[in-house]
Prior knowledge:
By secondary structure, this protein is of the alpha/beta class. It has four domains: 49-157, Beta-Lactamase, CATH 3.30.450.20; 173-251, Helix Hairpins (Orthogonal Bundle), CATH 1.10.287; 252-405, CATH 3.30.565.10; 408-528, Rossmann fold. Helix content is 47%, strand content 21%. Helix 1 (8-14) crosses helix 2.
Amino acid sequence: MFSNNLNLEEIRSLAKDDKSFQKLVGLFNRTCETELAYERKLFSIIKEGLPNSFWYLKDAMTEEIIFYSDSVESITGYSFDELILMNGGVLSLVDDDDLPKIKEAMHKLRSDDNSAYVSFKYKSKTKEDKEKILRTTIAVMRNKNNEPVYFKALTFDVTDIEIGVEDLQREIEKLQHTNEAKDKFISIVSHDLRTPFTSLLGFSEILLNDQELTEYERREYLEYIYDASKTQLQMVNYLLDWAKLQTGKITIAPKRVNLKTIVTNCISVLTGSTIRKGLEIKSDVSGSFFINADERLITQAITNLLSNAVKFTPSGKKIYVSANTFKKGMIELVVRDEGIGISEDNHAKLFKIDEKLSLTGTDGEKGSGLGLTLVKEIVEKHHGDIWFYSKLNEGTEFHITLPGAKNLILIVEDEETIRELYSMAIKKALPNYEILIAGNGYEAIGIAMEKLPAVIVTDHNMPLMNGIQLIEALSRKYDSMIPVVVISSFIDRELTGRYNELGVTKMLEKPVDYNMLAEIVKELIQKEN
């Protein structure tokens, strides 16, 4: 019996006409409990629908839509009034490829007396032409003659779930491919690690036991052992570094570093090799380029690229290093040589862990075949890219992109007026630098960690955390400290000594000469360059 507690006007508001009203009343008579609280809750669910889902009621005889829950509009973009005018209602939005299976399922539900419900998943287009993936379950209500009277359908928006499943599947496939590649790589490396030791042991045994060897032969065998051992050690080191990067055992510790300084250091390391081969490395990297990178790892990557260029470039030729802005926030470094180039057959093998490519240099130099794989891993860990262009006997150029570090100065001061005065003076002296503001040390640490400023200007006497505590906290975060200028209302020998121990040599006593402050900041930046 229909409950007196349920408001007929509320039910009437769901129906479009008297016929629909009567059908809904009949449905409620069969499904509603008498408890008022339950009725109200049920009525709310019926009218509004559930999150990410909607339901509808359809006359099985006339195919007329009797009701859609309000949530249908949030999922499809269409209102009740719009949907009932469509032939097929919400099912008219089904993708053409999915329509045949839905028609087949509905035919079975209608014709098979033993069929109580069907479920299917399909693609659908919203009013805004956005593709969604929906899953619908349709149940049939039959009369005493077992003839369909109503179809009740509940539809869930499973778009995000399906996308998540697809992403997960792609990740699984990627991991499976990586595991297969690693298995092949281990097979290759284990072979390459074992093979030279047969010769190494053989030559060592001859040196130990053959007393009739000439001095020339002894030296030749020792040189072979030395060169082979050096190559094997390089391979082991590359392999260990690659494995640590893969497993996260090497922590990327990015900081603001000058790209020109790194490139100069890398070239310096290779000076002996370039002189012996009669090569020249020409660098055109501006001192204004700063990158946000792990200095040790990026130095290793660039050194590997330059070392390869030296290895495969004949005597008398040149190697060029240049840098430019690639796109917003990224710096591009290019290493170009006039060497022997890479054949097209070998292009696809570069960077692949399971396609280790080891070629002999122009002076017979040996390599591990793992250097470029490690470079790629390092660059990608920095959210950069690597690619190359090469033609046989014409040379090769490698491109890598790295995140640029912005020109930023951080002012840490709790007095707003003083902050403004510092900012104005520094901005006038360094118009290309952006000024960041922190009201206390804790706020400064968060900004410094995220933004990597070139210089920090901080007051010593601050609430919550003084200047010394701030610098100690930052020194735990960075291998090398960001240059700091300390301002204090009182400076004595003890305070100066504490800051000097922390690497701070620039201190100013209040009241501050703003022009002097700006010059000190400018000096620190120029020193960093």
